[in-house]
Specification:
It is built from eleven helices and no strands. It has 192 residues and is mainly alpha-helical. The termini are far apart.
Length: 192
């Protein structure tokens, strides 16, 4: 066991718990200097940098984490997220895809992948990813709304109707918004 890594990591955890992020970052940097290949510390550094919207720094830590441990689904998702938030869509796409391959039950990775496809007008791909996100989290109104809009852009009115039906039973506010935005006034009578 690398006691220096553990000692600095515990300091980082303590500082993080009491809201002293800069001191937490410094302690975790000391920890990673003691053990440069410790993936949980690299991931934590990425998470702390992302919390301060320092996307490039977060990306660097997380890219090192997946380089060392390429089968870490959590680190791939976090890398995709920071690339997405940092405006690096083309780099975020394969990271989201890898996260869903490694953990097909990560609804957030499917949602991120779907939203990224939708943002670039790839609505069929968006619908496929958002279908998975909705299947995994049936109460996620944002995923269901985005899925309905993806089907709307694909000119699939029956699929939009199925999403509206789901939303009516699970999230009436999402249903109302989707009915309006997808121009499905034929469902307006179903709103309370």
């Amino acid at each position: 066991m690398n006691y220096d890594r553990v000692r600095h990591g515990l300091r980082g955890m303590l500082f993080s718990m009491v809201g002293q992020r800069d001191r937490a970052l410094a302690a975790y940097r000391d920890s990673i200097r003691a053990d440069p290949t410790h993936v949980p510390t690299l991931s934590t550094l990425g998470w702390l940098e992302a919390g301060q919207e320092r996307w490039a720094e977060a990306e660097a830590w997380l890219a090192r984490a997946v380089e060392i441990k390429p089968d870490d689904a959590h680190a791939w998702f976090n890398l995709a997220y920071v690339r997405d938030k940092g405006g690096k869509d083309e780099a975020a796409l394969p990271a989201f895809q890898r996260a869903t391959e490694l953990d097909p039950n990560n609804d957030r990775a499917w949602y991120g992948l779907g939203m990224l496809h939708a943002r670039h007008g790839r609505h069929a791909e968006a619908a496929a990813a958002l279908t998975e996100a909705g299947r995994l989290q049936p109460m996620n109104g944002l995923a269901w709304y985005a899925l309905g809009m993806a089907w709307h852009h694909c000119n699939e009115p029956d699929k939009v109707a199925a999403v509206i039906e789901h939303a009516l039973t699970h999230d009436p506010q999402t249903a109302r918004r989707l009915i309006h935005d997808a121009e499905r006034s034929d469902f307006a009578h179903r709103l309370i």
